[in-house]
């Protein structure tokens, strides 16, 4: 009985299966060839590295042998010169420099041969020469530090250019070089270009207004300062901690690496002329032993009292003030002023006792930013 004739779909499926199997075999063969090629290349690289290492070791050994031969020849020549009372000129001519140094030392010192011509002495003399040469090179190659020239000198140069220099800054270099000014012509041209700013600033300053490095994220700092001013205009409390959190939230949008550290907050406050203030604290002076490490009370000219907390960090009275005298929410540093919401003078009761004090807080301490 004749077999069943396959349909066209079955034929196509068989052909596709055969093609897939063939492609798989070809891919396996290509992978094996690539692996074999990579192994061959790795083996060739390893052999080349081994040969290079062997050549380097051979060169180092040859150099060491040559150096030792020079040292031994120098020692032998020195021995002949010392014992014979004189040295052959031909031997001195062909002697290495290190050996000649040993021979000269032996003749000048007149010591025994062992101390004058030891290999250690030869090596030390060679090392000493190298060290001295290295020091000379290092001293000569030191970079020239930039000089800070005060505004008074810049004004003097600008005035000379305006007068005898007839408005040509390049003429100033020759004139002031005779006065032992170590200033380049480019500096004079730069000063002449900025003469309006330089002449407008005070002479005791070293750089013109607006010079130097600009603050980090200057535009964002200006926005933060505007927010601080708006918060204070609404009589809202602004602390160092609030500034740090607000800056961190604002600046991370433009720079993910920014960190509002305590040092940054302190510099931000100083750059923008902000002042940290705290309320006054009243006290009564009584006849008690002095407080140990709590607070030292000192009266100012107006009769008010400033609190200077000591280094142990204990609280003065019941307030939450750290060792710097600043509210804990403020951080560590800052410019501190003490102010009172109620203009009350402290009551002082002096019964003759020496320097005893006890702190009583009439109101909660707070830190505000003005």
UniProtKB/TrEMBL annotation:
Region (Disordered) residue ranges read 305-370
Pfam families cross-referenced by the UniProt entry? HTH_Tnp_Tc5
Q: Source organism's superkingdom?
A: Eukaryota
Query: Is DNA-binding set as a keyword in this record?
Result: yes
Domain annotation HTH CENPB-type: ranges? 208-278
Per its UniProt record, what Gene3D superfamilies does this chain match? Homeodomain-like
Q: Show the GO MF annotations.
A: DNA binding
Keyword Zinc listed = no
Q: Which InterPro entries match?
A: Homeodomain-like_sf (IPR009057), HTH_CenpB_DNA-bd_dom (IPR006600)
Identify the keywords attached in UniProt to this record, alphabetized.
Answer: DNA-binding
Composition skew (Basic and acidic residues), residue ranges: 339-370
Q: What's the protein name? A: HTH CENPB-type domain-containing protein
The organism is Globisporangium ultimum (strain ATCC 200006 / CBS 805.95 / DAOM BR144) (Pythium ultimum)
What is the organism lineage in this UniProt record?
Answer: Eukaryota, Sar, Stramenopiles, Oomycota, Peronosporomycetes
């Amino acid at each position: 009985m004749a077999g069943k004739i396959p349909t066209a779909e079955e034929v196509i499926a068989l052909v596709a299966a055969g093609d897939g199997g063939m492609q798989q075999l070809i891919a396996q063969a290509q992978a094996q060839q690539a692996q074999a090629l990579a192994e061959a290349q790795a083996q060739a690289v390893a052999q080349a590295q081994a040969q290079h290492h062997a050549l380097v070791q051979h060169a180092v050994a040859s150099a060491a042998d040559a150096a030792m031969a020079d040292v031994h020849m120098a020692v032998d020549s020195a021995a002949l010169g010392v014992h014979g009372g004189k040295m052959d000129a031909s031997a001195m001519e062909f002697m290495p420099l290190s050996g000649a140094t040993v021979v000269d030392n032996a003749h000048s010192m007149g010591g025994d041969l062992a101390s004058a011509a030891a290999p250690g002495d030869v090596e030390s003399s060679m090392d000493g020469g190298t060290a001295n040469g290295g020091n000379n090179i290092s001293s000569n190659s030191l970079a020239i530090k930039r000089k800070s020239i005060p505004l008074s000198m810049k004004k003097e140069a600008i005035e000379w250019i305006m007068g005898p220099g007839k408005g040509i800054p390049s003429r100033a270099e020759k004139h002031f070089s005779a006065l032992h000014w170590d200033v380049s012509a480019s500096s004079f041209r730069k000063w002449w270009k900025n003469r309006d700013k330089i002449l407008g600033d005070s002479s005791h300053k070293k750089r013109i207004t607006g010079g130097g490095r600009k603050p980090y994220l200057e535009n964002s700092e200006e926005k933060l300062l505007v927010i601080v001013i708006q918060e204070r205009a609404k009589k809202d409390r602004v602390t160092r901690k609030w500034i740090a959190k607000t800056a961190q939230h604002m600046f991370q949008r433009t720079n993910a690496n920014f960190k509002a550290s305590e040092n940054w907050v302190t510099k931000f406050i100083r750059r923008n002329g902000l002042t940290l203030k705290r309320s006054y604290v009243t006290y009564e002076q009584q006849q008690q032993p002095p407080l140990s490490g709590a607070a030292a009370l000192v009266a100012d000219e107006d009769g008010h009292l400033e609190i200077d907390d000591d280094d142990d960090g204990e609280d003065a009275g019941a307030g939450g003030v750290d060792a710097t005298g600043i509210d804990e929410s403020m951080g560590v540093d800052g410019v501190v002023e003490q102010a009172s919401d109620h203009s009350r003078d402290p009551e002082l009761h002096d019964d003759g006792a020496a320097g005893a004090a006890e702190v009583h807080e009439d109101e909660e301490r707070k830190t505000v930013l003005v």
